[in-house]
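Incident log, support desk, overnight shift.

02:14 A customer reports that sequence design results differ from what the structure should imply. Their input is reproduced verbatim below. On-call engineer (initials T.W.) acknowledged and began investigating.
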């Protein structure tokens, strides 16, 4: 099945180094992007007219807390992943399945956390939920783990590890060994930062710990929910090199400080996004869109920069092959446009104003999993639509 998307008004690449490109059509085949602006000799079975709207990568929520598939006990909700898909999220990374009912944070053992990651990877982490690529089975690191535990995790296909309950202030040598063991197995390491979380037992973490731990991603540096001090935040931005995550659960004031400083230093490549939900902050289907609008409407990023942070940057920091629209990449993308009544004639202008976009289509691996109308955003003023064409030349210029 080959699908042509044509009459694209704006094309957001997801690549922070070149976040927009003058692409007007897109050819998809076998789940991947075959060609940008294909020539007139190409054919397609389906043609989708973007009606001058925007194409952007599917959003990558770098910080979610799944438990069992579409069910989360956290806010007694079901169907949350499908609802997030309609808010534009096509990939999610678990920051730990710590809301599993009955989990005793004060008595976690190496075998328990390893088993929990294995089981989650083999159940929730194995399936596509509503089409979303959910990377679940993230191990919650605890003291006393041996290399054999990390071998088990690698065999299970676990790709992510998290320091949250680990007493980092006391376990420097062991924690550094864990980071090394993870890197040897291509497991990305994330660490909770800031004050105590809803669990009441997460460890406080600021610059002094981050400087020696050197994780792959420092989670919610502007709070999740409580941020580190302004001084620690600035030192973390100025004196370290790893990825820095901003979440919906954070402190908007600290987010503003962090994003402005990263922009000043020309280091937006380090910035990643997540919602840190489901959790005490709630279940937020439009959370990633709201993050983009906040970065662009308030924090001074261009719309294309904010989109690249929410897509290519976040995917790269977590070792994922999605988030950038280029030939050979998975065809995970959105078609969106300003909502009627919104400021701006283009998606970039409306996002720059801080306005929520309207989504008409969500594609995952070349399949339209939202086809014509998102149930979570208002409709775009000029929605994309499928044309009644079975086989056509596909230069996109007719
Ligand atoms: Zn979290």
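02:41 Re-run completed on a clean worker. Output:
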């Amino acid at each position: 099945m080959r699908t042509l998307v044509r009459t694209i008004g704006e094309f957001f690449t997801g690549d922070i180094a070149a976040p927009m490109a003058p692409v007007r059509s897109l050819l998809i085949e076998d789940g991947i992007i075959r060609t940008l602006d294909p020539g007139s000799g190409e054919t397609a079975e389906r043609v989708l007219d973007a009606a001058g709207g925007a194409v952007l990568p599917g959003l990558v929520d770098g910080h979610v807390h799944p438990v069992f598939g579409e069910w989360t006990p956290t806010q007694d909700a079901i169907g949350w992943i499908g609802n997030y898909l309609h808010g534009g999220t096509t990939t999610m990374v678990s920051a730990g399945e710590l809301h599993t009912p009955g989990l005793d944070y004060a008595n976690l053992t190496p075998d328990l956390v390893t088993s929990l990651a294995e089981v989650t990877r083999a159940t929730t982490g194995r399936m596509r939920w509503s089409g979303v690529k959910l990377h679940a089975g993230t191990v919650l690191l605890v003291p006393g783990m041996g290399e054999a535990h990390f071998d088990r995790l690698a065999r299970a296909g676990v790709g992510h590890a998290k320091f949250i309950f680990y007493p980092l202030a006391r376990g420097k040598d062991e924690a550094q060994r864990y980071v090394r063991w993870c890197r040897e197995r291509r497991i990305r390491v994330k660490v909770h930062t800031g004050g105590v979380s809803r669990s009441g037992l997460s460890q406080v973490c600021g610059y002094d710990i981050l400087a020696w731990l050197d994780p792959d991603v420092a989670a919610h540096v502007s709070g999740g929910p409580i941020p580190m001090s302004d001084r620690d935040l600035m030192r973390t931005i100025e004196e370290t090199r790893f990825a820095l995550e901003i979440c919906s659960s954070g402190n908007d004031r600290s987010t503003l400080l962090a994003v402005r400083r990263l922009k000043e230093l020309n280091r937006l490549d380090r910035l990643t996004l997540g919602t840190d939900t489901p959790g005490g902050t709630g279940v937020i289907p439009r959370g990633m869109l709201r993050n983009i609008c906040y970065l662009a409407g308030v924090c001074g990023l261009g719309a294309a920069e904010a989109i690249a942070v929410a897509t290519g940057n976040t995917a790269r920091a977590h070792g994922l092959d999605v988030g950038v629209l280029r030939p050979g990449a998975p065809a995970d993308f959105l078609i969106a446009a300003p909502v009627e009544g919104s400021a701006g004639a283009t998606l970039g202008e409306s996002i720059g104003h801080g306005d929520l976009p309207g989504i008409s289509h969500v594609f995952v691996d070349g399949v339209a999993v939202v086809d014509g109308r998102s149930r979570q955003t208002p409709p775009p003023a000029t929605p994309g639509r499928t044309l009644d064409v079975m086989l056509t030349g596909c230069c996109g210029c007719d």
